[in-house]
Amino acid sequence: MSDTTLNLAVNAYGGAAYGTVLKLVNNCNPSITDCTWTYHKGMLLSDTNAGLAVNAYGGAANGTVLKLVNNCTANISDCTWSYQHGMWVSDSNPSLAVNAYGGATNGTTLTLVNNCAPNITDCAWTYTGRSAKPLKGWVDLHTHPLSYLGFGGKLIYGAVDVGSTLPPVSPPPFGSCNTTPVAATEADALSGENQVHGGYGTDNACGDSIRYQVIQNLEQQLQAANFTDDTFKTSGWPNFPTWPTWDDVVDQKMWVEWIRRSYQGGLRVMVALAVNNKLLADMTRGPGDLPGDDFTSADLQIAAIKSFVGRHSDFMQIAYNSNDLYNIVWLNKLAVVIGVEIDNIGNLTGNVPGSALVTEVDRLYGEGVRYIFPVHLVDNPIGGAAAYNDLFNVANVYEEGTGYTLGCADQASNISYNYNPPSVWIQVGAFAKLKTNTPGLPPPVPCPTGNVNTRGLTPAGVQAIKEDGVVG
After folding, report:
1. Of 240, 234, 274, 279, which is closest to residue 391 (Cα–Cα)?
2. What structural domains does the chain harbor?
């Protein structure tokens, strides 16, 4: 806002597009398009179009008109500014400051002048960046709306909305088995679970008996809802006799209308996490199914999250920074933050330099990811995973080549988990589905308390977490 005339604010006059001239207008507030700005790494970014920044168009010289350009970065001349004593000073030429050239009135064009000081008319500005209006609503920091695309596409059953990509299935009435993804209808997105989760039989040519056993044992280990072959035949749309239920871990529970109900109940921020585990994927996927590796699976889900939110922009929008989040919620929509919860970002395993981790995090950031689990179910180049489930120790062997480094928990921690070698079903499933045994499974480590994984952050993990790219 102009300190000379407080009802005037900087506006991308005519729309935030390349080459737009900045002017003052008298009807700005945080809800009006093109009136709000983010100050990031010295740049003034348009909140309407975060790819555009204020630039001393043509060079930082006396009388230069300020415009928006789309190729600004923090190290490009004329794109960065210092907010000093209430003035916006050009970093290219610190003797020049932004001035409401000709007087702070409606429609005045902003230019650079070389005789500005805080006490000179039209040179001083108040940067609020935001209305003081507080935000209200619920925040859900951990959701998986597109998880059915993870784990090879067959561990989680369902889809998120009509038109979303459904992993290869046989549509009702369960004829031949599809080998290509389909665009979901409500019926085939939320019913027909038996063809995916059920065992093979004369009534279920698309069933998989090993996948069925994997799911059965996973449900039991996680103390989750345990559905049988018979239940799979009758569950889901349109009556939903068995799911969604709070303790179900293998069915879609984030159909778009259910998300909308949460929004109507006050949900205003939702972190949508791409999720995957390679062992679970490889033990449940089949020929023609979706990818099981972390890199490809996460990228698939990230793209699908963007598409999903775009199809329902009437009530939700992706937030790429704190200003986006504020504006989205201020406008009474649901802000969706993209995140990843996978074992190995970029499929990086073993001893890799911290720079490789930073490069992959920067790549994910470029795709819109703003929330990352450094460590998920298995050890990775960043550090050791929490020990709490026998199957994940098997995954550690399968993915990383060795089991957790188990030790005894402190008495005060109240940790009671004790690792036991996997049951026969894991050995059989691993041999049949993965075409390999699971060598080197660690023996139990007797403890008066529970077991913990004693592996902490690696040196590469410490370096990566300290880098700006990881926490930016």
Report:
1. 279
2. 9-113 (2.80.10.50), 138-342 (no CATH), 390-455 (no CATH)
